[in-house]
Amino acid sequence: MRDQPAQARWVIWLSLLVALALTIWPLPDTVAPFRPEWSALVLIYWIMALPHRVNVGTAWITGLLLDVLTGSLLGQHALALAIMSLVVAGSHLRIRVFPVWQQAMTVMALLGLYELMLILVDGVTGNLYDLEWRWAPVLAGMLLWPWIMFLLRALRRQFGVS
Amino acid sequence: MASAFSSSGNDKLFGHGPSPLIRCVLLVLLSIVIITVDHREGHLDRVRQSLALLTYPIQLIVDLPSSAIDRASESLSRRGELLEENRRLRAERLELSGQVQRLESLEQENERLRELLQSGERVGERLLAAELLQVSLDPFRHRVVVDKGSRHGVYQGQPLLDADGVMGQITHLGPFGAEAILITDPSHAIPVEVNRNGLRTIAVGTGNLTRLELPYLPNNADIQEGDLLVTSGLGMRFPRGYPVGTVQSVERRPGETFAAIHAEPAAALNRSREVLLVWREDGLPFDRDPLADPDSNGGRDQDQNDGSGSMDEGESQ
Fold it and tell me: What is the ipTM of this complex?
């Protein structure tokens, strides 16, 4: 029982690392605007499943790494992920029992909030361009949610993450 | 902060009490402070550099497949192809060294004429070859990652070239790698002049990799399709005389103050993998006008910025 948390953290951090790598994976120009927000999706799952293990602080640190990785304003993704994570942490008991399609709709709302925070910071700092494509990652994230959830749930059960 | 949470985290039923809210509020305030400082001052380069130590390996891992494919195709290509390429490169080299011979005598002549005019010497330049990592940072902003960092003497704001022209400048520095903004990023502007007649203006990025905009030229400006734009060196960031692009379309609009002029970047912004970093010959950055004599203007460089300098600074957000 005692050594499971160590294992657990290993799986969680690895999944977040993979999410960060997928965020900068080169994609063809036609698909690139539809790149889902991998880190946000993975964080939503872990906070929903293990709110005592992954929390707002984890999300904030991931966001800070995302900022340095993509060269955006330092703190921008951290802010957006922290606020989104707070909402997930507050309602994880409800989201957990939703059927998959309803979960996907909730995830879309969460990703929308996340994107809105990013747009807000972009707007305040005067970096707002290509506003008409900002919905694309939200939609892609919603469509991918069932697969991400099944994959991460399988991982969690396989490694006994708790 | 982590320990404070794990103690309350043992209480699984009430793990979502007020504590996450307070933490979130604190983190949000911290984020806002960081955003403000990073946006206004740029004092957080050290934090960014140390965090880049963690993120640069991720970028290297993402780059691995494409660099491995490059290497594999090199070692698997047939002997005939290699010979063919070798022959082509040899011919190219001969042609280029022929051009350089003439360039050297022209440079000497230019130097003598400058002495006659009693204007300052042109500073020579030093180049370092670097490679771009195949990572895509953000589809809406044009940023690239270079595999050379502060360990190799790279500095913030350093010009980045490829074989055909100016690509961009370094924005964020890490110890082993650096991030650069391309000239086509919508928040980037570069001071240029028309090579034909020396007409100075500013080329602004459009967010399209094959398009630059020249929004500040009046309708009666002497500019036409096919004009070569070169760096003017006025922003005190780019060395003078490197090709930036070719004018593609000039639309003179009688009702408007300015003409709509578009140019195509000279550099292969979406194709180059090999790039060049430029220093002055003495290894110093280009943060001062290489043509200006430091004694004659008494160190009041700020005042002689004619607006293009401040535009050029506008990238660092």
Answer: 0.83
A109/A94 Cα distance (integer angstroms): 14
Q: Does A157 touch chain B (CB under 8 A)?
A: no
Please provide the distance, in angstroms rounded to a whole number, between the alpha carbons at the two ends of chain B.
Answer: 30
Residue B227 domain flag? yes
Burial (CB count <10 Å: 0-12, 13-18, 19+), residue A103: buried
Nearest CA in chain B to A84: B24
Residue A74 forms contact with B (CB below 8 Å): yes
Cβ distance A129 to B140 less than 8 Å, yes or no, reads yes
Evaluate whether A96 touches A48 at the Cβ level (below 8 Å): yes
* B275-288 pLDDT per residue, tens: 999 888 777 777 65
Place of tokens 């982590």: B2
| Distance between A99 CA and the closest CA of chain B, angstroms | 22
Q: Mutate which of B5, B22, B27 to disrupt the A interface (most A C-beta within 10 Å)?
A: B27
**Calpha distance A49→B49 (Å, rounded):** 34
- Asked if pLDDT for residue B310 goes beyond 80, the answer is no
Residue B84 is assigned to a structural domain of this protein = no
- CA of B167 vs chain A CAs: smallest distance (Å): 18
Tokens found for residue B2: 């982590």
Is residue B284 included in any domain, yes or no? yes
Could you give the 3-state DSSP secondary structure of residue B166? strand
What are φ and ψ of residue B10, in 5° steps?
A: -65, -25
Examine residue B310 and state whether it is found in any structural domain, yes or no: yes
Q: Measure the CA–CA gap between B250 and B263, rounded to whole angstroms.
A: 9
Whether the CB of A58 is below 8 Å from some CB of chain B: the reply is: no
Residue B281's CATH number: 2.40.10.340
pLDDT for A111-129, tens place per residue?
Answer: 999 999 999 998 998 888 7
Number of Cβ pairs closer than 8 Å across A and B? 136
Residue B105: C-alpha distances to residues A119, B95, B100, B127, B280 (Å): 54, 17, 9, 21, 21
Q: What residues make up the domain containing B227?
A: 128-317
Could you tell me which of B187, B182, B189 has the C-alpha nearest to residue B204? B189
Question: CA nearest B180: which of B166, B192, B194, B201?
Answer: B166
pLDDT, residue B285, reads 73
Pairing of strands B189-194, B212-213: unpaired
Q: Please tell me the number of Cα atoms within 13 Å of B126 on its side-chain side.
A: 10
| B27–A57 C-beta distance less than 8 A | yes
Q: Considering its fold, how many domains does chain A have in total? A: 1
**What's the domain range around A114?**
4-159
Chain B interface test: which of A74, A93, A115 (most B C-beta within 10 Å):
A74
Asked whether the beta carbons of B227 and B196 are under 8 A apart, the reply is yes
